[in-house]
């Protein structure tokens, strides 16, 4: 649910990075944080365990520029990927405007991707949203690793509705901004429709 | 959509800002701010120059969301108020109309009793303002200012 502030001439939108544990959601945010001008970003907050696993969420506020005199601000959140943090994931999805599903391309994580996607579907449905209606893109991460599933196969399994999808290596930054831009565009297009 | 779109107009913003400014004075607070449940900052007052209000807004909303989750598990409707006591600063967090969050940061110059008393009064006023705002937003004819934007406008935003 975006927030239009006529007083501050601002529009605020919430983007959530979803996906199985260790798929690279936090790494996506870290890369964006490192590569963004200081005046376009706020502080990045990570609520993580001592071993740097996301405990509740990561948060990064970004300014993208102006549209028709309105500043566009995007609040990026990640969810904790580990299965047992489901209650927290549900909370973070509240009021979401756009979702990026980060898939781990490694063969051994194929099932974890499918489970996480199913979990996303269920948790969105609980809030009355559906993946078919909400701005949504997929990122196939870790393409640099040797043991990856071919993109065509991932696409078949994870992207039956052919939403925009991108290959990425979040560590090096490949595909990170492409994914973010794609979902941001969808969110703004949805806003234009009055969603 | 489950929740109606959050929109803030100048008129209501000014009303809210008045309430927030007054609360800073009446409660002897350092900072007062209002956040929506999704973590967007709506208004702030007091000594905010050296404060990262964006981060505070997001964390407060996360806090309220987590507490709401606990309430649900205990079959409570909600925990409407929270209080955290620090060495120098204290923070009082109040849910207003299950829609927005009113946060008061105060030090030894004030007291929890005073803050709670003033917050209660402010909550009633804020409830009324947000109620009116919601009605206004839902009135047909209040079109999105973004209905007019073009695909080109959106593309331009992403030109490096």
| Count of runs of 4 or more consecutive helical residues of chain B | 4
Instruction: Report the portion of residues of chain B in β strands.
Output: 15-25%
Structural class of chain A, by secondary structure, is alpha/beta
The H/E string of chain B reads EHEEHEEEHH
Fourth-tier CATH superfamily name of chain B = Dynein light chain 2a, cytoplasmic
The number of helical runs of chain A is 5
Number of strands of chain A: 8
Strand count, sense and barrel status of the largest sheet of chain B are: 5 strands, antiparallel
If strands are numbered along the chain, what order do they take across the biggest sheet of chain B?
Answer: 3-2-6-5-4
Radius of gyration of chain A: 16 Å
**Tally of distinct domains of chain B:** 1
Structural class of chain B: alpha+beta
Describe the structure.
The complex is a heterodimer of chains A (195) and B (160). By secondary structure, chain A is α/β, with parallel strands linked by helices. Chain A has one domain: Rossmann fold (3-Layer(aba) Sandwich), CATH 3.40.50.300. Helices cover 31% and strands 28% of the residues of chain A. Chain A has 5 helices and 8 strands; from the N terminus they run ββαβββαβαβαβα. Chain A has helices at residues 25-34, 86-93, 110-126, 151-158, 176-192, and strands at residues 3-5, 10-18, 45-48, 54-67, 70-78, 98-104, 136-141, 165-167. In chain A, strands 1, 2, 3, 4, 5, 6, 7 and 8 form an 8-stranded mixed beta sheet that branches. In chain A, a hairpin with a 2-residue loop joins strand 4 (54-67) and strand 5 (70-78). The longest helix of chain A is centred in the middle third of the chain and has 17 residues, at 110-126. The model of chain A has no long low-confidence stretch (mean pLDDT 94). Chain B is of the alpha+beta class. Chain B has one domain: 2-Layer Sandwich (Beta-Lactamase). Chain B has 4 helices and 6 strands. Chain B has helices at 10-26, 53-73, 112-138, 151-157; strands at residues 6-8, 31-36, 41-46, 81-85, 90-96, 100-106. Chain B has a 5-stranded antiparallel beta sheet, with helices on both faces. In chain B, a hairpin with a 3-residue loop joins strand 5 and strand 6. In chain B, helix 1 (10-26) runs antiparallel to helix 3 (112-138). The longest helix of chain B has 27 residues, at 112-138. Chain B starts with 5 loop residues before the first strand and ends with a helix. The relative contact order of chain B is 0.16. The model of chain B has no long low-confidence stretch (mean pLDDT 90). The interface between A and B is large, with 46 and 41 residues. Strand 1 of chain A pairs parallel with strand 1 of chain B, so a sheet runs across the interface.
């Amino acid at each position: 649910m975006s927030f239009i502030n006529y007083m501050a001439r601002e529009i605020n939108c919430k983007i959530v990075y979803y996906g199985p544990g260790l798929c690279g959601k936090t790494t996506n945010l870290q890369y964006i944080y490192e590569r963004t001008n200081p005046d376009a970003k706020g502080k990045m907050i990570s609520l993580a365990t001592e071993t740097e696993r996301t405990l509740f969420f990561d948060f990064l506020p970004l300014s993208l520029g102006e549209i028709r005199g309105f500043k566009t601000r995007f609040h990026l959140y990640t969810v904790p990927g580990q299965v047992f943090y489901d209650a927290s994931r549900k909370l973070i999805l509240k009021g979401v405007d756009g979702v990026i599903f980060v898939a781990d391309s490694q063969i051994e994580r194929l099932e974890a991707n499918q489970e996480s996607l199913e979990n996303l579907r269920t948790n969105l449905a609980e809030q009355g949203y559906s993946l078919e209606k909400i701005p949504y893109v997929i990122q196939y991460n870790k393409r640099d690793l040797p043991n990856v599933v071919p993109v065509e196969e991932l696409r078949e399994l994870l992207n039956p509705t052919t939403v925009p999808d991108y290959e990425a290596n979040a560590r090096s930054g490949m595909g990170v901004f492409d994914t973010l831009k794609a979902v941001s565009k969808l969110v703004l297009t949805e806003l234009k429709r009055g969603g | 959509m489950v929740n109606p779109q959050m929109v803030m107009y100048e008129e209501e913003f000014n009303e809210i800002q008045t309430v927030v400014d007054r609360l800073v004075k009446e409660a002897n607070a350092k900072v007062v701010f209002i956040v929506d449940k999704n973590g967007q900052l709506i208004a702030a007052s007091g000594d905010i120059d050296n404060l990262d209000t964006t981060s505070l807004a997001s964390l407060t909303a996360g806090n309220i969301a987590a507490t709401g989750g606990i309430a649900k598990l205990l079959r409570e409707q909600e925990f409407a108020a929270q209080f955290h006591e620090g060495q120098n600063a204290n923070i009082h967090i109040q849910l207003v109309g299950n829609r927005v969050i009113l946060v008061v940061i105060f030090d030894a110059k004030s007291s929890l009793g005073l803050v709670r008393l003033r917050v209660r009064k402010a909550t009633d006023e804020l409830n009324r303002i947000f109620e009116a705002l919601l009605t206004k937003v839902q009135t047909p004819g209040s079109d999105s200012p973004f209905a007019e934007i073009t695909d080109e406008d959106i593309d331009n935003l992403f030109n490096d």
